Amino acid sequence: MEHSVISASNFNAWFGDNHAVKDVSIKIEKNQVIAVMGPSGCGKTTFLRCINRMHELIPGARSEGSLKLYADDVYTMNPIYVRYKIGMVFQRPNPFPNLSIYDNVVAGYKLNGLKMPKAEMDHIVQKSLTSAALWNEVKDSLHQKGTFLSGGQQQRLCIARAIAMEPEVILFDEPTSALDPISTSSIEALFHELKANYTLIIVTHNMQQAARVSDKTAFFYLGELVEFDNTRQMFTAPKDKRTQNYITGRFS
Amino acid sequence: MDARLKLRNTKSIVFKSIIIFLAFVITLPLIIILLYIIKQGVTQVNWHFLTHIPAPVGETGGGISNALLGSVIIVALSSLIAIPVGILAGIYLSENATTRLAYYAGLCVDVLQGVPSIVVGMVVYFWVVKPLGTFSALSGSVALAIMMLPIVIRSTEQTLKLLPDSLKEAALSLGVPYHRVILKVIVPCGFAGILSGIMLSVARIIGETAPLLFTAFGNPYLSAAITKPMQSLPLLIFNYATSPYDEWHNLAWGASFILLMFVLLLNIFTKLITRKWNIQL
User: Fold this and answer.
1) N or C: which end of chain A has fewer CB within 10 A?
2) Do B185 and A165 touch (CB under 8 A)?
């Protein structure tokens, strides 16, 4: 129990009348890469957005059940604190267009009005950009706007921005679906390095990607968590018929 | 077949010529007005003209310093009233577009934009001038602020609505509280649009005469007291152009030239700002 970073039990979420996530129970362990896959509209992104309480920002959205970060219920914590502890990277790279690369990395501190000595901030910027495998490409242009970077670089900038807050968990919502194959593979390589320090939960449409990068895979179908197991087990010998049909491409 | 093709080509050429010609024609009114005002007004303008108050009838010389100062004070004061209210209301309308309040508030903004300026002046006369017992620059500013509001509100709203939701999500996902998301991310990203709305609204009200007739009222002397009657450029033009004296007509031409230059420069600045500060998304 104690070693689960995220644990949900009988968790439900709705968009208005649409029951998007049904009775999901899952335990996610520390320093693992979890892939969440399933056909479009199966509730995987909704579930992801429930973890850092972004789901409730949509009008008409609500949720029920228990979702814990270690021993604390995420839904009784202050959402601002939840989002410090659980970072997020979105489908489309979304660096702040009004900020420089440097300021984008420390945006979590600056936008919250947290003051710190410049040396410490420099250190955070370098460390986060290095972890996101972007430091060498941007170290000479830190004070240019982040929007001049390529799509893949922008996405790594967004990862650096999430890392800078030192979260426990980083959520990725189809992080490579807007990127070309080269950028995709550089970000996939990143996942392997990041899991030493963080727990990663990655929603993906791409089954090969799930197989390549994850330790465990969760399969969602029509709002239910159908199967959650070691990735190798899941792709070689799925226990549920629906998982098998999905993996073999009988429906998508 | 060939003949038909030729006919269709000719039609296209004729149509294209007409729209090019009309695009050219619409620039003419402005050019003609500009040239005429410059011809009549530019000879009046010199340092003396800008720094002296109007001379009494029969004396030569005199200037428009009281109207210049008055216009600047009245417009600054109305901006002080209208800009914060307008931007905040615009933020509400863009953030909560689907609420009933937003629907009715938006409707009111549209209607407010259509209220004749003389009616605004009259209402402010009953609301501010009568209770205070005197015409004042302040009441004029209130009237002009009401004229400014719809432009500032709508331009803020439209600008912010164009910003992608992903920007807000990015900030929220970093644990930034809502008010800081708006003030530190959304408003800075829409800054060029908001500012250009403000500039256009200033350009719009700086030439308003009707709402000032029975609020700021006008004042032949230099005055910076906002609780006293104050002169402004359009009031001076109105009063002096309708007078029977040639010297006063010249003063009015000079003031028109200055006013027109203000508006022209504001518009050009606005264009430059939107081009230079527009943020690439």
Assistant:
1) N
2) no
pLDDT level of residue A1 (50, 70, 90 thresholds): very low
The token pair that represents B203 in the structure block: 């350009």
ipTM value:
0.88
Distance from A238 to chain B by nearest Cα, in Å? 34
- Residue A70 sits at the chain B interface (C-beta within 8 Å): no
Amino acid at B50: L
Give per-residue pLDDT as tens, A185-236: 888 999 988 989 999 999 998 888 999 999 999 999 999 999 999 999 999 9
Provide CB contacts within 8 A for B67, sequence distance 6+: B231, B232, B233, B235, B236, B255
Residue partners of A63: CB distance under 8 A and separation at least 6: A11, A12, A13, A14, A21, A50, A55, A56, A75
B281 and A52 in contact by Cβ < 8 A?
no
Query: What's the gap in Å between the CA of A250 and the closest CA on chain B?
Result: 34
Mean pLDDT to the nearest integer, B21-50: 92
Q: Which domains does chain B have, with CATH numbers?
A: 47-277 (1.10.3720.10)
Go through the domains of chain A in sequence order and give each one's CATH number. 30-52+77-247 (3.40.50.300)
pLDDT band at B280 (very low <50, low <70, confident <90, very high): low
- Residues of chain B with C-beta less than 8 angstroms from the C-beta of A107: 171, 174
